[in-house]
Design goal:
Helix content is 37%, strand content 14%. It has 249 residues and is an alpha/beta fold. The protein has a single domain (11-246), classed as Metal-dependent hydrolases (TIM Barrel, Alpha-Beta Barrel), CATH 3.20.20.140. α3 (96-99) links the parallel β5 (89-91) and β6. α5 (159-167) packs across α8 (206-218). The longest helix has 17 residues, at 61-77. The protein binds fe (ii) ion. Residues 14, 16, 89, 227 line the site of fe (ii) ion.
């Protein structure tokens, strides 16, 4: 049930490749080294998605577009066969609408990457994504397997049971109140979901890896991304994380 026609391992939808703008690549040299590793792993297009968080990472869309163009020029100069897209990893809080006045879109379907924190207010999450969809934007939820608000109610080895629970509007967690799960709500309004290659490599622990495998088997993911921040150990991370994916998408 994995969506073979959408999720690919040539399009990196989440990467902190731009130099010196957030906690990703520190220098142009490191960006170029990361680009070489990503190409060697099979990627042909990378979305540059630096954090945008009010008071922490306050870059403008114009600055990100300029920096992406500068890095693209350097990549061409180095004869690295990689296409860049200017994007951002938006942070879901009350300041997000300010950043969306000039949104950085990842594709022609008006896709943009948004991160949900574990302590986010569920009503704010629902209202924000509903308003984004209503305005023609398509939220791509960053690494849902790492967000406890989107956890399946329990792990399940049985594929049929997993599918029933994932696609059911009511989770066991909310069965007493018949409140729809946040995950099923986000699916119902047309959000998309980015699996993190590092999650499949075990970078965030066994619980997150199990959750990622459950989502993968359930066909939740529409995109994958490296969420790469550094060149250090990147080749190993991609190899370990992409190996199980290649057998399942
Ligand atoms: Fe990220």
């Amino acid at each position: 049930m994995v969506q073979k026609d959408v999720a690919t391992l040539t399009f990196d939808s989440h990467c902190h490749l731009l130099p010196g703008i957030d906690d990703g690549a520190a220098t142009m040299e490191e960006s170029l080294e990361m680009a070489r590793v990503l190409v060697a792993a099979g990627f042909t297009t990378v979305c540059c998605t630096p954090h945008l968080i009010k008071g922490v990472y306050d870059s403008t869309s114009a600055e990100i577009r300029i920096l992406t163009a500068e890095l693209q020029n350097a990549i061409v100069q180095e004869s690295i066969p990689l296409q860049l897209v200017a994007g951002a990893e938006y942070y879901l809080d009350e300041y997000l609408p300010d950043f969306l006045k000039d949104p950085l879109l990842l594709d022609e379907s008006h896709l943009l990457l948004v991160e949900i924190q574990n302590n986010a207010d569920i009503k704010l999450v629902q209202d924000t994504f509903f308003r984004m969809k209503s305005s023609g934007l398509t939220p791509l939820i960053a690494h849902p397997e790492r967000c406890r608000l989107l956890s399946l109610p329990e792990e399940c080895d049985d594929r049929k049971g997993l599918m029933v629970r994932l696609l059911s509007p009511f989770t066991a967690r909310h069965s007493q109140t018949k409140e729809p799960s946040l995950l099923s709500y986000l699916q119902s309004i047309g959000c998309q979901f980015q699996g993190d290659i590092g999650s499949f490599a075990g970078l965030y622990g066994d619980r997150v890896r199990a959750q990622a495998n459950s989502f993968l088997q359930a066909g939740l993911y529409t995109h994958f991304g490296s969420d790469a921040h550094h060149s250090r150990h990147l080749a190993d991370l991609l190899r370990n994380g992409m190996s199980p994916l290649k057998n399942n998408i």
